[in-house]
Amino acid sequence: MLKAVLLALCLAAAPARAQLASPRAIDIPAWFADSLLDLREDVREAAAEGRRVILYFGQDGCPYCTTLMQVNFSQRAVVDKTRRHFVAIALNVWGDREVTWLDGRVQREKELAARLKVQFTPTLVFLDETGGVALRLNGYYPPRRFEAALDYVAGRMERKLAFQDYLAAAYREEASATLHEQPFFLKPPLDLRRRPGARPLAVLFETPYCAGCDELHREGFARPAVRAQIAQLDVARVSLADAQTLTAPDGRRLPAGRWARELGIVYTPSVVFFDGAQEVFRVEAYVRPFHLASSFAYVSSRAYRGEPSFQRFLQARSEALRRRGAAPDLWR
Question: From the CB of residue 300, how many other CB atoms can be counted at a distance below 10 Å?
Fold first, then answer.
């Protein structure tokens, strides 16, 4: 599987001039746009060229951002497609440059990232000709899935069908034809309503023929650190192909696949966390075990209530582990 890949999200392309390197999170390709960061102008200029804008949110020290650059953007087909159809603009989630958003509001990069609720890096926001969001990728997508996202937005397919339907039709992996079981999964029939005082709930969304799902069970769920965090929550597994009726956290009874569609599940595996009837967090891109365990800890500790930034929670958790002499390995 992807042994050289990590989480977060990707990016796309633009003119041949490079942005200044100093304020940028990690190295970006020289073909990224040299933008003055008035995104209204960027959208208009891209539209006049028949292209669309991609906003890439990254940060230093992000292994998933590095993988996006070194793996995805080392493949000529991906680079050519990105440059042909998109203008790519890089933003630093901790940066202080001023950005003019589509509504005319001026704010610093880090303020815009907070406003857009960027929780993972890389995050890619694809803007259409009017400045609307055509697609958003919250985390790293491996090359073939990422190329499918490029095709979807370049082809203006968001006007015709949902990305999850497009991806299911366009992308098929060599993987297990059956779902994997885990002893910590809630048993069907699933009643996901939370009683007062109940633990938070994690809902894992999977499909057959999902290589990422195979890796999650083979590597992620096999790690003691991950299992220790999983033990703090109730965990249910839902198949996108399942027509079985379940009771959602809000009390509605509906088919599992329909509920997944309502939640906008695109990437498998995805994990959606609930506290009570409310969704409070989700992981919907490729993630290694440290980030997987951290996402469960973020919700089980209810740290999300006081710290809305998952990135800041990760920083604090990593530093606490270092002080105890157990520095985390983000790759392993």
Answer: 18
CA–CA dist 284, 135 (Å, integer): 14
Please, what CATH class does the domain formed by 39-170 belong to? alpha beta
Q: List the Cα angle 277/166/240 in 5-degree steps.
A: 40
Give per-residue burial for 44-75: e unless 16+ CB within 10 Å, then b.
Answer: ebbbeeebbbbbbbbbeebbbbbbbbebbbee
Rg (CA), the chain: 20
Place of tokens 């000709």: 129
Rounded-to-integer distance, Cα 313 and Cα 323, Å: 15
CATH class of 201-323: alpha beta
Peptide bond connecting 308 to the previous residue in cis, omega within 30 degrees of 0? no
Which residues have CB under 8 Å from 35's CB, separation 6+?
A: 19, 42, 89
Strands of the 201-206 sheet, one edge to the other: 234-239, 201-206, 270-275, 278-283
Which token pair is 151?
A: 């095709």
Structure token digits, residue 64: 């998933």
Say whether 201-323 and 39-170 share the same fold: yes
Cα-Cα-Cα-Cα torsion 65, 10, 87, 50, nearest 10 degrees, comes to 170
How confident is the model over 290-317, as pLDDT tens digits?
999 999 999 999 999 999 999 999 999 9
**pLDDT 10s digits, 233-267:** 999 999 988 888 999 999 999 999 999 999 999 99
Q: For residues 143 and 147, give the distance between their C-alpha atoms in angstroms, rounded to a whole number.
A: 6
Give yes or no for a contact between 139 and 283, defined as CB atoms under 8 angstroms apart: yes
